[in-house]
Every structure is written in structure tokens, then in C-alpha cells.
Design a protein that fits this description.
Four Helix Bundle (Hemerythrin (Met), subunit A); globular; mainly alpha; about 170 residues
Length: about 170
């Protein structure tokens, strides 16, 4: 039995972004209960040379929406990176999920052989759709979702594996 490009992408992005939004909800509750300014979490990092929580969430959302758009052969939505609150980050996630859900199965399936060209600085990198999804986007997406989880867990938010996985 084979798995389609759609099955390997959109449902996973939607589920994990939804889980990330729930984790941010728990962070809001934690911040309020402990009387901690949300900015502490928004700007928190695991190491000085890593991006803060806000950027981890932005990148995870960007990876998912860019992948869906490129595989579907449509324009990648552009978001300003101006989120300063947990509510702002949840709104970005909600907007990304809505976009992902607007891309249908037929737009994604069959994109494994589609040429995906990424402009990076002064060069272009060309991938097949399958390579782009499986070797580029999925590892980066999960890295940033996991890092966001780890930042919050490290900073005292009561989270567990079930918050990250949440298979509902």
C-alpha cells in the first residue's frame, strides 16, 4: 500500500500545528497562573545562538504553508513576522491551518515529480516534490515544532509527550 503526497503532508502539518497551538494555550495559562510576562516565553531560547520561541513558531508555520503551496503549484502566502504575544502566534497558526485546509487532495497528489525551485540568497535550488517534502520540509518542520515544545518545557510550562503528540 502506498501513501500519497497529500497524506504525507497536509494532515500531519495540520495536526502538529494544532498541537502547537494547544501548547501555546497551556503556556498562556501557565504564564497567568505564575504571573510571568508572556514576553519571557516569546523571547525564550534553549541556547543563545538559537532562535526564540516566536521565530520557531513562525518557521514551523512557514515551512508548512510554503510546502503546501509549492506542491500545489500555487503562490506561497506571505505573513509578516510581527507576532509579539502568544495570542498572535496562535492566530498565525490558525491562519496557516486554514490555508492548509484550503489546499485540496488533487492539488497535492501527483506532485512527487513536480519541480520545486527555492530561491535562496543569490542562487536557486531545485528539488523534486517528493525530495522537497520528505528530505527538506518534514525534518525542518518537526525540528522547529520540537524546539518550540522544548523551549517551553525548559522554561517550566507543564508539558508532556502527550501534548506534543496529541493524536486526537
Amino acid at each position: 500500500m502506498s501513501i500519497s503526497m497529500y497524506q504525507a503532508s497536509i494532515p500531519h502539518f495540520v495536526r502538529m500545528l494544532g498541537n502547537l497551538s494547544l501548547i501555546l494555550d497551556k503556556t498562556s495559562v501557565h504564564a497567568e497562573a505564575k504571573k510571568i510576562d508572556q514576553a519571557v516565553f516569546i523571547n525564550a531560547r534553549l541556547a543563545p545562538d538559537m532562535y526564540p520561541l516566536s521565530r520557531q513558531v513562525q518557521i514551523a508555520a512557514d515551512m508548512a504553508k510554503a510546502c503546501a503551496a509549492r506542491l500545489a503549484g500555487i503562490e506561497v502566502p506571505r505573513y509578516e513576522d510581527n507576532e509579539t504575544t502568544l495570542a498572535d502566534l496562535r492566530a498565525r497558526i490558525a491562519k496557516t491551518i486554514a490555508f492548509l485546509q484550503s489546499v485540496n487532495v488533487d492539488q497535492i497528489n501527483g506532485s512527487d515529480g513536480r519541480t520545486v525551485t527555492i530561491k535562496m540568497h543569490d542562487k536557486e535550488i531545485v528539488y523534486s516534490g517528493q525530495h522537497y517534502l520528505l528530505e527538506i520540509v518534514i525534518p525542518h518542520f518537526y525540528f522547529h515544532v520540537t524546539t518550540a515544545y522544548a523551549i517551553l518545557r525548559h522554561h517550566g510550562v507543564e508539558l508532556g509527550k502527550s501534548d506534543y503528540i496529541n493524536n486526537e
